[in-house]
Amino acid sequence: MSDDKHLTTHVGNPVTDNQNSATAGTRGPTVIDHQLIEKLAHFNRERIPERVVHAKGAAAHGYFEVTKDVSPWTCAKFLSKVGKKTELFTRFSTVGGEKGSADTERDPRGFAVKFYTEDGNYDLVGNNTPVFFIRDAIKFPDFVHTQKRNPETNLKDADMFWDFLSLSPETTHQVTILFSDRGTPKSFRQMHGFGTHTFKWINEKGQAVWVKYHFRTETGIANLTREEAISLAGMDPDHATRDLFEHIKSGSVAAWEVSVQIMPLADADTYKWDPFDATKVWSFKDYPRIPIGRMVLNRNPENYFAEVEQVAFSPSNLVPGIDSSPDKLLQGRLFAYADAQRYRLGANHAQIPINCPHAASANTNQRDGFMTVNTNGGSSPNYEPNSLGGLIESPAYPENHLSVNGAVAKTAYQYKVDDFTQAGDLYRLMNADEKARLISNIVHHMMPAKEEIKRRQIMHFHKADKEYGSRVAEGLGLSIDSIAQTCKV
Q1: What is the structure's pLDDT at 3?
Q2: 361, 368 in Cβ contact below 8 A?
Q3: S-S: 443 plus which of 1, 247, 464, 475, CB 3.0-4.6 Å?
Q4: Domain with CATH 2.40.180.10 in the chain
Q5: Mind giving me the DSSP string for 128-183?
Q6: Rounded to the nearest 5°, which phi and psi values hold at 280?
Q7: Domain boundaries for CATH 4.10.91.20 within the chain
């Protein structure tokens, strides 16, 4: 057996006996045994805090290949020419469940992509749905609390779940998606992905456009019914994780066509919807999808913890040519995601191999801290500006400024407020069987909630589409006419 297969301590010392503790005599007691202490001490520290959302996930390595010239819109180097390939790592996840929850739970699916570009890492942190429940990050902690466990009983609680939704009409669009067939994807390979937010692309001339990202699976969409999802959760709660790993292990790939919708900057002030509202989509008739590339996943992680558990995504990881937008939910995520990684993994989480850039070096004046494992900047100055040969800024990259106006104040969202039309349009696009399953899923989940909460939520559905609200009310044994007369939302 080669030396690299011999067990050692954490500093490389050979372990001569890993089966027996050192004892005083054959019956003990146990004495100070450094191998025993090392193993138990490390064991006590093996767990890191799980992600507060997206706790359970699966991931794979792969690449992105450019298929269309996008230089008129962005100067991002990894998109600079047709045929260019960029390494990436993609993580899929359920959102609300704990790390041991079932892959088949009714929940959005996280769809996070880390591109290892020549200008550093670019993270696109989206979901398998084109919209989200809320449009302002200040509501996010409250929303997530309602999707988790009751603080008194530690049980999932229909009253909590629907109480928040029924008092937040902007959730109606995403709720309709969540309780449709798309709420329980059959596998991570058989679902679309979306950047969800609006982003800005900037070209070499400093000209900009607004964009939305779409990842359309080449495998084809496949979903589970509620009954199938419940059954599979009991038989194989790790079904989607297993499917992705074994599919790639067999030599197959998982692939998506990547496209964007492009909106001229000026249209943001005239479009019928607020393009920065994360609860809304842009019509394909108004802004068609433009295919720009292909994402291919072809290699499994070698170690789950080192790669899938420790990978750190943040929408604040942007490269020149791509920027954020005034989307209020995105603005909060720009801080929250990076901060979550600092909490989970430490201030130096970018030094973990899965998070290190591949084709660029990380040159920063951020030094020291727990788990500094690189050269820590060596002997160079740790400040800027400097005249001693240290790091300097890079002013050559083009920027596009955003004009703002108005008073700084906490104000309710009031720009082109319409929380129901797109949800109603989605309902009306469904065929009869899809509508029936949507209604059944909602009724089944809402049944335990208090009647007052049911009535408020039904009115959201009714405002989206009268038939939609009426069928939910009927399924819950309530009168839509009575609700419409007495319920004010």
Answers
A1: 58
A2: no
A3: 475
A4: 57-160+183-355
A5: SSSS-S-S-GGGHHHHHHHHSB-TTT-SB-HHHHHHHHHT-GGGHHHHHHHTSGGG
A6: -120, 155
A7: 1-46
Contact criterion met (CB below 8 Å) for 183 and 177? yes
Q: Which helix (DSSP H) or strand (DSSP E) does residue 113 occupy?
A: strand 109-117
Question: What is the CATH class of 1-46?
Answer: few secondary structures
**Which residue's structure tokens are 């300097």?**
392
Q: Considering the entire predicted model, what is its pTM? A: 0.93
Fold of 57-160+183-355: Catalase HpII,  Chain A, domain 1 (2.40.180)
56 in Cβ contact with 99 (< 8 Å): yes
Three-state secondary structure call for residue 30: strand
Q: In this structure, what DSSP letter does residue 53 have? A: S
Q: Hunting for tokens 């009409």 — which residue is that?
A: 169
Closest to 196 measured CA to CA, from 149, 246, 133: 133
DSSP string, 54-66: S-SEEEEEEEEEE
Q: Which helix (H) or strand (E) holds 423?
A: helix 421-429
Unique residue bearing structure tokens 């937040």: 168
Helical packing angle, 451-464 and 432-446, nearest 10° = 160
Active site residues: 54, 127
Give the separation between CA 368 and CA 356, rounded to whole angstroms. 17
Contact, 244 vs 58, CB < 8 A? yes
C-alpha–C-alpha distance, residues 388 and 444, integer Å: 68
In 3D space, the residue among 56, 40, 130, 134 whose CA is nearest the CA of residue 93 turns out to be 56
Q: What is the pLDDT of residues 361-388, one digit of tens each?
A: 777 778 888 888 888 888 888 888 888 8
Half-sphere exposure of 341 (CA within 13 A, CB side): 21
* C-alpha Rg value of the chain to the nearest Å: 25
Neighbours of 370 (CB within 10 A): 8
The CA distance from 427 to 442, in Å, is 13
The one-character DSSP state at 349 is G
In this structure, which amino acid lies at residue 271?
Y
Strand, helix or coil for residue 318: coil
Residue 74 DSSP SS3: coil
CA-to-CA distance for 407 and 401, rounded, in angstroms?
Answer: 19
CA–CA distance, 277 with 116 (Å, rounded to integer): 29
- The sign of the dihedral angle between the CA atoms of 199, 339, 303, 234 is negative
**Do 480 and 462 meet the contact criterion of CB atoms below 8 Å apart?**
yes
Per-residue pLDDT tens over the stretch 452-485: 999 999 999 999 999 999 999 999 999 998 888 7
